[in-house]
Design a protein that fits this description.
Elements lengths: L15 H15 L10 E4 L3 E7 L11 H18 L1 H15 L2 E8 L2 E4 L13 H12 L6 H15 L1 H19 L14
Parallel strand pairs: 2-3
Antiparallel strand pairs: 1-2, 3-4
Helix pairs in contact: 4-5
Length: 195
């Protein structure tokens, strides 16, 4: 056991859905109730936890333009970011110690999702010429400034258009992890080696 965590598969959690549930539950209990209008969205990967809460929309005049509404929402997001900075840093430190991942914050307000600072993790990959040509086309067309930015753009595009398929894939992976966790004990000594 480490800091009250369960040690399984060297990660402390039986599978990613258990970890995501534990993280979501911890933030739900730990965050001040007056910060957000409902439950927080929590996304967890190997490096980072992203916590996004919904803020109350700012009150604007009924005849306010879209630009005015957008500016009011941006102002509300900035006000929340600045007024909660010290408390969010304190909560993030606790979470980083507990879950061994960095914490990023964001809000939903006025129909927009605004992320504050979050990790940009380098990913090593080997691409063949046809894949490099796709990235170079995006750079040449001005869609991206570099191959790495073009790759990130491509990943976001696939994520947007393949949400349902990716959800099914993640669910299948979680099921495999759950079944694997129910398998026999992986102790190489076997029952004879136990006292």
């Amino acid at each position: 056991m480490r800091h009250g965590h369960r040690e399984e598969h060297g990660t402390g959690w039986a599978d990613s859905s258990e970890l995501a549930g534990a993280v979501r539950g911890w933030f739900t209990g730990r965050l001040p109730q007056d910060w957000f209008t409902g439950p927080v969205e929590v996304e967890v990967d190997r490096e980072e936890i992203t916590v996004v809460g919904t803020l109350a929309d700012p009150e604007v005049a009924a005849d306010a333009s879209e630009a005015e509404r957008a500016a009011a929402a941006e102002g509300r997001a900035r006000q929340f970011r600045e007024s909660t900075r010290e408390d969010r840093i304190s909560v993030a430190r606790e979470a980083e110690h507990r879950f061994d991942r960095k914490v990023a914050w964001g809000v939903r307000v006025g129909g927009e999702r605004v992320l504050f600072t979050h990790l940009a993790v380098p990913v090593m990959t080997r691409l063949r010429q046809p894949e490099r040509m796709v990235l170079d086309t995006l750079v040449g067309a001005g869609v991206a400034r570099s191959r790495s930015e073009a790759l990130a753009w491509s990943v976001r595009l696939v994520g947007r258009h393949a949400d349902e398929w990716l959800r099914e894939l993640r669910a299948a992976m979680e099921e495999v992890e759950r079944v694997r966790a129910q398998g026999p004990d992986s102790d190489p000594a076997g029952p004879e080696g136990q006292e």
